[in-house]
Amino acid sequence: MASTFRKRFLYLLPGILTLCLSLGAYVLHSMRMLPWQSPVFDTALPATLPLTGAHAVLIFSKTNGFRHESIEVGIAAFKKAGLENGWDVHATENGALINSDYLHQFQVVVFLSTTGEILTPAQKSAFEKYIENGGGYAGIHSASDTEHGWAWYGKLLGTFFRDHTFLPLHLPEAEIITENAAHPANRGLPGRWTKADEWYNFKENIRKNEGFQVLLSLNDGSYPSFWYKMNGDHPISWTHRVGKGRMFYTAMGHHADTFSDPTAMRHMIGGIAWAGKLAQPVNR
Ligand SMILES: [Zn+2]
Q1: What's the mean pLDDT in 136-154?
Q2: Which of 64, 87, 97, 254 makes an SS bond possible with 198, Cβ 3.0 to 4.6 Å?
Q3: Which helix (H) or strand (E) covers residue 248, if one does?
Q4: What distance in angstroms lies between residue 113's CA and the mean position of ligand 1's atoms?
Q5: pLDDT single digits (tens) 106-116
Q6: Please, are residues 109 and 136 in contact by the beta-carbon 8 Å criterion?
Q7: Pick from 120, 117, 225, 124: nearest CA to 109
Q8: Cα of 198 from ligand 1 centre, angstroms
């Protein structure tokens, strides 16, 4: 009997090992724990500092972890939106530009799908001062999977990325509920709409955080996932104020189509404008 069991176990062993390796790879992928990547920091400034005009928006997309293919698409879309709205949009991945002298030229800094540990202690300190003195922050998608060990950044965001949709679908279409329809980021958005994307779960539900305002949430019952979600209350976009500064975050943006989806773009452009105290687009 025991030997039959052992034979069966040996027969199943390759399958069990494959399953364990797949699960391990899934966990590493979803937690972005890529031990072979060590962060690269920037300390050298460009020979000439890029000058900005009025209503300046800085897009920062440095990655020291997973790199989203949608980053370049997003930069192009925000530059186009900048031309339409009279914003001077600059994009960089040089962390050395996160210094007080350079940042003070910008109304808002967009962390566009940043990942990993990307700033030195001095750069973090400059960014904290910039926001608390009235600067704007707009985080897109994996901006919440960035700098998990930076306590101030955690307070700015309210929580961090936990994991995302993967099985049975990586990019399922989900129903999005627009909350706080009067907020500038939500003006003109349908009450309920659908979009396909990689949907994030977070370590904490930010709805309980004092001073935070939920802008969008997911209808958790509207898409499949073998993994547990957010217990039926699933904020994916939110805002709050830090010192004199403002923050806006949205979890959407893995899918490059996000940046050509008029509803998603309306939300993100409205959120960036609100965070940067910029005039809202006129056609809203
Ligand atoms: Zn993603």
Answers
A1: 98
A2: 254
A3: strand 245-250
A4: 8
A5: 999 999 999 99
A6: yes
A7: 124
A8: 6
Instruction: Judge residue 197's burial from the number of C-beta atoms within 10 Å of its C-beta, 0-12 exposed, 13-18 middle, 19 or more buried.
Output: buried
Q: Find the farthest-apart pair of alpha carbons in the chain and give their distance in angstroms, rounded.
A: 80
User: How far does the centroid of ligand 1 lie from the alpha carbon of residue 70, in Å?
Assistant: 9
Task: Read off the pLDDT of each residue in 149-173 and give the average, rounded to a whole number.
Answer: 97
Q: What residue numbers bound the domain in which 236 lies?
A: 56-275
Q: What pLDDT is stored for residue 28 in this prediction?
A: 56
Which of the two residues, 12 and 233, has the higher pLDDT score? 233
Structural domain contains residue 41: no
User: By C-alpha distance, which of 131, 138, 143 is closest to 63?
Assistant: 143
Residue pLDDT, tens place only, 87-130? 999 999 999 999 999 999 999 999 999 999 999 999 999 999 99
Antiparallel, parallel or unpaired: β 161-164 and 200-202: antiparallel
This model's pTM is above 0.90: no
Mean pLDDT value of segment 205-223: 97
Ligand 1 centre distance from Cα of residue 182 (Å): 28
The amino acid that residue 218 corresponds to is: L
CATH value at residue 156? 3.40.50.880
Going from the Cα of 3 to the center of ligand 1, the distance in angstroms, rounded, reads 47
Domain count along the chain? 1
Q: Is residue 28 situated within a structural domain?
A: no
Distance 160 CA to ligand 1 centre (A): 14
| Domain contains 157 | yes
* Separation CA 274–CA 126 (nearest Å): 22
